[in-house]
Amino acid sequence: MADPHHASDDYVRGSQEISEQNQTFTAFMGLTKWGSLSLAVLLLFLTLWFQPGGSFFGAAIPAFVLLVAGVFFLKSGKKH
Q: What is the pTM of this model?
């Protein structure tokens, strides 16, 4: 007698619609990439600004360079 709780005959591998999961994964990865870059730029800026003898412009220039380099490398990543 077949167990009604295990309907293994109903599932066909690869037949489930996954577009919503794919969109969620893509959004999560985008937020992770850009959020990490934002935190790195902010951390660099604040560390250089508030170190002894630090200045606003002495911190803003390296932070801006990191931001530009990060945007360049994240945008030029592998395309699907």
A: 0.73
